[in-house]
Amino acid sequence: MGTVRNAPPEDGAATRDRILTLLRRGPATVEDLSREVGVTANSVRVQLAGLERDGLVRREGIRRRFRKPAHLYALSEAAEQAFSKAYLPLLATLLDVIGDRLGREREAALLDEVGRRLGAAGAPRPADPEERLRNALAVLADLGGVAEVERRGSSVFVRGFGCPLGEVVRRDAQVCTALRSLLAEVTGMPVRESCERSERPACRFEIELGEREDVIPGAAPRGGPRAAG
Questions:
Q1: Global pTM?
Q2: pLDDT for 172-229, tens place per residue?
Q3: Cβ–Cβ < 8 Å for 177, 111
Q4: Contact 41, 34 (CB under 8 A)
Q5: No. of H helices and E strands in the chain?
Q6: Which of 110, 133, 186, 226 is 20–30 Å from 118 (CA)?
Q7: CA 46, 49, 53: angle at the middle one, nearest 5?
Q8: What DSSP state is assigned to residue 157?
């Protein structure tokens, strides 16, 4: 009698990555993915449930068959963006071209306008200064930044842990102008930029509160970390 060998354990991370790669080609059913990956349908369902929970996969219609109809799964827009590696190199090269063609001063003016337009594209600026500051941190979070705030006298200091545009900042530090202008537009307050431009760039902004020294977005005067990402 021959010896029955157990199948090797499935690598969940490898299965997840393979499913994502297959879905980049187009929508697929559990059965399609099971066949291509070489794992059981139940294993595929477990991974798809996790990917849906993480916002990387969504259901996209139903494939009609002679048997029971099957759900089609597709990558979400967030996953498509995460896979793309073109944005930062394209932006960095675009800034190089703008700087060469127009000069550094006009490049800075353009980045200032870019930041203000991004800030103005959001919801109308609320009357409450504290809410505006919270909105500014939310904007940084939406861009992929993580920051904490600290009050010193009549100013709030925003200290980033890294920079959402770090790859571009290493090539052209003027891109920080756009983030400064964005925060100024969202808060309606003067903003000064003093970003770190080391091997690992990090955002640093000072927002002037003027007479409203009591305003601080949900933090004590020496505020602990506030996530912006």
A1: 0.64
A2: 888 999 999 999 999 999 999 999 988 888 999 999 987 554 444 544 333 443 433 3
A3: yes
A4: yes
A5: 9, 6
A6: 226
A7: 145
A8: E
